[in-house]
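User: Just a sanity check before I run the rest of the batch. Below are the structure tokens for the first item. I only need the designed sequence back.
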């Protein structure tokens, strides 16, 4: 109970930092993101908020969250757009191209060092400011 209160306040701060007013719907959406530790799309959120809000409001909220940097767009090569909270530990994704199962994997030092080497060896680039890494394949169920 106490933990939930803290989370709600965190979301309020997040919205404030993004220059957005706290509304029940916005707080609900952020709560859904923090409860589901994987990229989610508008359909998923709408299914959780059915009867509480309409699709247009969900889409509008997602777009303003993305603009102010609360959410990060993840390209999973699916027909819909997936988002994740920007404020979580840097990590990457593995996606099943058959059923859409998504798994996170943590950043590893080897990957990080490898990326730095790529930039060091590059003729035209001096630094990288960010990167994303998504792997595509089939999960154990679909294989
Ligand atoms: Zn993720
Ligand atoms: Zn699968």
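Assistant: Here's the designed sequence for the first item:
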């Amino acid at each position: 109970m106490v933990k939930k209160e803290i989370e709600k306040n965190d979301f309020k701060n997040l919205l404030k930092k993004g220059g957005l007013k706290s509304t029940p719907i916005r707080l609900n959406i952020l709560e859904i993101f923090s409860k589901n530790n994987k990229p989610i799309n508008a359909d998923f959120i709408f299914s959780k908020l059915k009867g509480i809000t309409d699709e247009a409001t969900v889409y509008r909220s997602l777009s303003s969250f993305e603009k102010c940097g609360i959410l990060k767009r993840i390209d999973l090569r699916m027909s819909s757009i997936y988002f994740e909270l920007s404020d979580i530990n840097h990590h990457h994704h593995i996606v099943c191209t058959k059923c859409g199962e998504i798994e996170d994997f943590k950043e590893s030092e080897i990957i990080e060092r490898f990326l730095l080497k790529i930039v060091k060896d590059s003729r035209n680039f001096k630094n990288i400011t960010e990167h994303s890494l998504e792997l595509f394949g089939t999960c154990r169920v679909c294989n």
